[in-house]
Amino acid sequence: MRKILGYILLVLSCVAWGAITTLPFFDISVGQAAAATTGLIVLGEASFFLGVLLLGREVWEKIKALFKTNRKEEGCD
Fold first, then answer.
1. Phi and psi dihedrals of 68, rounded to 5?
2. How far apart are the C-alpha atoms of 72 and 77, rounded to whole Å?
3. For 11-66, how does the pLDDT look when each residue is reduced to its tens digit (9 = 90+)?
């Protein structure tokens, strides 16, 4: 059950970030759009980190590996 909830939270974080891109298409004021954007960012970040906490260190290491670069291939020392 813990893993299922963790994966649901990870998907929810992606949905929250994706929802930010749809805000300009709604007929809302700038203040409302700013508030909605802030709320969606907080929701996305919180659900991401809670999902990673529920899934454990193994998933966190896989996520970190996606963003690591091999410096020798890029020519950096």
1. -75, 145
2. 7
3. 999 999 999 999 999 999 999 999 999 999 999 999 999 999 999 999 989 888 88
- pLDDT at position 75: 58
State the DSSP string of 17-67. HHHHTTGGGS---HHHHHHHHHHHHHHHHHHHHHHHHHH-HHHHHHHHHHH
The torsion angles phi and psi of 47, rounded to 5 degrees, stand at -70, -35
Hey, what amino acid is at 56?
G
Type of residue numbered 49: F
Q: Are 19 and 44 in contact (CB under 8 A)?
A: no
